[in-house]
């Protein structure tokens, strides 16, 4: 089929979805074209649950050859947090060969225009969506997420974030018209007349540095934002989470080729054990955009050293929940227990510090002392995770030994209000599954401050006793300003306290959730409506997703001619 016909078909197929996405980011209302329920798949050529599992199983022990220029070796070594070896091999690249090949396709991709780039990206996302069950297993066995979370967060929610980035990219590119007729009156003389042409041009090659815990959810925004704005994209996955992004690259290359574009616009580079190629790639002159999710130390290094590139980072922070009063005490405890437990706290949005006045709080069940609040929360977590089958479905597996070590060390930092316990996973005996630990700390003690003012990534939370609500607000402010926060939560029935917390979050640029007691949790965000991070505090220099996330991935070049 001719490339031109294919492109026209893609516009007819995907323009309505793009228009819906544009409306969703304008209204911020709920919308998603990607079903969250596993049973919604299996029709119209998509893989159902059994077919998806079979497709994943068929990948194990194979070589995923993407037929890329410059492949000089094949590397692998992923071991699932659930204890199985994946045995998949991926291309290792000679970047001196691969990067020029990637750049060669950018002219045609640039000239295609914003709409065609957008619908090609939507076709990539649609084909990924059709394989959501397969991708879910790939995410599960590289991140340690439980299957349902891997299905939803690694599938439809990640696809939503990718589509959201495409929509924002389209808006920013079409903000300027393609052409303009410019006429300036000159009195009695003939007017000055010019024809002006405006073209969005890509910065260059984008580098996506993937993370271990959410390879697709955190990887798709940067990948699709760069691709939709005309840039080639090189994907460098985390060594323990290559498969989901390798499959993504494979799909993207297939779609680009079928649509008449150079498949090398999207490529993968995996690395040998201990090779550490991210630093080398990040400072290459061809790399003009970098998207990174991971540790603060490497994020800071990228911002300081990758000077030739526009760098977007999501790093680490210390997320806090202020608990001052509650008009639904049980609802608050249930909501917090789920937030602390989901995916073993291995989310950048999981609450770490619970700031509670040492004299206690007011509730609909009467006054509660600090110790009572913490004990009741511990019982709520125990109740949530008391059944091992349900616990496994919520906790997933510990993603790496560092998380396990932090969890074990946390018990020595203060009085343990909730001890972590080991849970067996009958389906995967090699999985390391642990319930959360909650440790009491005193906000006034310097030794305790050293603990709660440092990020302790994993299923570790600190109940921090503070002298008053105002002290809690000021500690919240200092934590966000010095350490950053991806999320902030607060429970209060006091209007003055609510306003004080809101003002802190506005001044320090942190996303706030107030009095959540239902099925929405502080560590969850919805694409097209919620902003993930703000870009305004040390936890991240970008938000997923806003205009600033896409607008600097391209520049507008003008050509003027005499009319």
Features:
563 residues; alpha/beta; 5-stranded parallel beta sheet; 20 helices
What would the principal axes of the Cα set say about the shape? globular
Termini Cα gap: 39 Å
Provide the helix percentage.
40-55%
**Percentage beta strand:** 15-25%
Mean pLDDT: 96
Given as residue ranges, the uncertain stretches (5+ residues, pLDDT < 50) are none
Largest sheet strand order: 14-17-18-12-10-19-20
Total beta-strand segments: 21
Summarize the biggest pleated sheet: 7 strands, mixed
What is the gyration radius calculated from CA atoms?
25 Å
Oligomer: single chain
Total count of helical runs of at least 4 residues: 20
Structural class assignment: alpha/beta
Tell me about this structure.
The protein is built from 20 helices and 21 strands. It has 563 residues and is an alpha/beta fold. The two termini are 39 Å apart.
Structure summarized in a few sentences:
The protein is of the alpha/beta class and 563 residues long. The protein is built from 20 helices and 21 strands. Strand 8 (287-293), helix 12 and strand 9 form a beta-alpha-beta unit.
Write the layout of secondary structure elements.
Elements: H1 3-27, H2 49-59, E1 71-75, E2 90-93, H3 95-104, H4 106-112, H5 114-130, H6 132-143, H7 147-154, H8 156-174, E3 179-186, E4 189-202, E5 205-209, H9 220-228, E6 232-236, H10 243-258, E7 266-268, H11 277-282, E8 287-293, H12 296-305, E9 310-314, E10 320-323, E11 325-326, H13 329-341, E12 353-357, E13 362-363, H14 370-385, H15 388-395, H16 401-410, E14 415-418, E15 422-423, E16 433-434, E17 437-442, H17 446-452, E18 460-466, H18 469-483, E19 488-491, H19 495-508, E20 512-514, H20 547-551, E21 554-562
Parallel strand pairs: 5-6, 5-8, 6-7, 8-9, 10-12, 10-19, 11-13, 12-18, 17-18, 19-20
Antiparallel strand pairs: 1-2, 3-4, 4-21, 14-17, 15-16
Helix pairs in contact: 1-5, 1-8, 2-6, 5-8, 5-10, 6-7, 7-8, 8-9, 13-14, 18-19
């Amino acid at each position: 089929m001719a490339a031109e016909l294919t492109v026209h078909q893609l516009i007819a197929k995907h323009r309505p979805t793009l228009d819906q996405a544009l409306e969703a980011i304008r209204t911020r209302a709920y919308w998603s074209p990607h079903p969250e329920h596993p049973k919604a798949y299996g029709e119209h050529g998509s893989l159902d649950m059994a077919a998806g599992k079979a497709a994943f199983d068929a990948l194990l022990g194979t070589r995923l050859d993407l037929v890329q220029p410059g492949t000089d070796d094949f590397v692998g070594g992923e071991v699932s947090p659930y204890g199985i070896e994946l045995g998949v091999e991926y291309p290792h690249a000679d970047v001196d060969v691969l990067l020029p090949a990637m750049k060669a396709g950018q002219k045609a991709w640039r000239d295609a225009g914003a709409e065609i780039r957008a619908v090609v990206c939507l076709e990539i996302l649609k084909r990924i969506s059709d394989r959501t069950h397969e991708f879910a297993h790939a995410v599960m066995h590289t991140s340690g997420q439980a299957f349902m979370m891997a299905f939803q967060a690694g599938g439809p929610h990640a696809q939503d974030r990718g589509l959201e980035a495409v929509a924002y990219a389209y808006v920013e590119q079409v903000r300027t018209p393609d052409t303009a007729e410019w006429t300036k009156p000159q009195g009695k003389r003939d007017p000055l007349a010019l024809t002006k042409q405006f073209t969005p041009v890509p910065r260059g090659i984008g580098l996506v540095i993937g993370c271990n815990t959410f390879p697709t959810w955190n990887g798709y925004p940067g990948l699709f934002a760069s691709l939709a704005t005309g840039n080639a994209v090189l994907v460098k996955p985390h060594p323990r989470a290559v498969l989901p992004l390798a499959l993504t690259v494979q799909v993207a290359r297939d779609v680009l080729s079928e649509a008449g574009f150079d498949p090398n616009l999207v490529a993968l580079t995996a690395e040998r054990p201990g090779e550490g190629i991210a630093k080398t790639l990040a400072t290459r002159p061809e790399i003009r955009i970098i998207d990174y999710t991971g540790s603060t130390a490497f994020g800071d290094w990228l911002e300081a050293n990758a000077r030739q590139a526009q760098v977007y980072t999501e790093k680490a922070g210390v997320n806090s929940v202020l608990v001052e009063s509650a008009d639904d005490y049980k609802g608050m405890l249930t909501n917090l227990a789920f937030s602390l437990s989901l995916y073993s706290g291995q989310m950048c949005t999981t609450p770490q510090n619970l700031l509670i006045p040492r004299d206690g709080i007011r509730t609909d069940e009467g006054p509660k002392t600090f110790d009572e609040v913490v004990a009741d929360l511990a019982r709520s977590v125990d109740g949530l995770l008391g059944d091992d089958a349900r616990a496994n479905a919520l906790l997933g597996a510990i993603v790496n030994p560092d998380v396990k070590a932090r969890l074990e060390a946390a018990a020595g930092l203060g009085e343990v209000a909730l001890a972590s316990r080991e849970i067996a996973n009958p389906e995967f005996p090699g999985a390391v599954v642990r319930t959360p630990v909650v440790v009491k700390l005193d906000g006034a003690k310097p030794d305790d401050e050293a603990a709660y003012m440092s990020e302790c990534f994993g299923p570790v939370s600190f109940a921090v006793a503070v002298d008053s609500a105002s002290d809690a607000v000021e500690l919240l402010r200092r934590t966000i300003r010095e350490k950053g926060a991806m999320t902030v939560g607060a429970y209060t029935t006091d209007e003055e306290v609510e306003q004080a917390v809101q003002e802190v979050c506005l001044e320090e640029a942190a996303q706030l959730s107030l009095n959540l007691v239902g099925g929405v949790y502080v560590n969850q965000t919805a694409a097209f409506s919620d902003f993930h991070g703000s870009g305004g505090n040390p936890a991240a220099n970008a938000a997923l997703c806003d205009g600033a996330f896409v607008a600097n991935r391209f520049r507008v070049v003008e050509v003027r001619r005499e009319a």
